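User: I need a structural model of Bifunctional protein FolD from Amycolatopsis rhabdoformis for a docking pre-check later this week. Nothing fancy, just the predicted structure tokens so I can convert them on my end. Input:
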Amino acid sequence: MTAKILDGRATAAAILDRVREDVTAFAAAHGRVPVLATVLVGDDPASHTYVRMKAARCAAAGMRSRRLELDASLSTTELVARIRELSADPAVDGILLQHPVPAHLDERAAFEAIDPAKDVDGVTRTSFARTAFGEGGFTSATPGGILALLDAYDLSVAGKHAVVVGRSPILGRPVGMLLLARDATVTTCHSRTEDLDAHVARADVVIAAAGRPALIRGAWIKPGAIVVDAGYAGNTGDVEHPAAADRAAYLTPVPGGVGPMTIATLLRQTVEAAIRHESTR
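Assistant: Understood. Predicted structure tokens for Bifunctional protein FolD:
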């Protein structure tokens, strides 16, 4: 068996084409384009690269990005104040705080300073709760992108056993909620789970989101499973890809799988936030 590749680049490009159309219609109706504010703290090279990439995608979709770069020495109180300013700014539709922030900062406090109506990256407690209860909040961008990628290939998870390896509040936990809402039976594992190989071996769907390169061995994969690798360290994901490709029915590449879907979801939700914003004026 050779796994069919779930092409995140092509799927994200199709989503961004629709986003571009929505932006054009929004601009015609409201005389402006949606605005995404990005907040970057410190000089981490990878974070700078990610923010530049998101700004470029914004521009390509006809949207506007506003970039706020802050010194790594600032305090949590100062960071929260700057984010609250963006939350209160009527010219801003969506806010993205680039993760991770420097270790001395309280990242959760900073996330919670984002107005849930502008939380297009789905990182606040309010967004998580609305997702869990099916109340229409913004999903965390990567989990939302994963579900959109499965949808693009008409892959249903209903009735299937899904194993999520990872428990972060912006990836592992929310993707479990989204899968549960689609009638999957969900098991959440992590790097300290005993007999992880046995749990993975029973999974019809594997979501690898632990941030541990090659943690999941290809030999563990159940023949015919759907495998989504959301890990990324250089060009290595959380799954041992060559061996997994011999057993899985569907597999995301690294890079080119989940990453492009995250950005596409972020921009789609920014347009949705702008539409809601205008409806409340």
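Before docking, keep this in mind: The chain has two domains: 31-115, 141-259.
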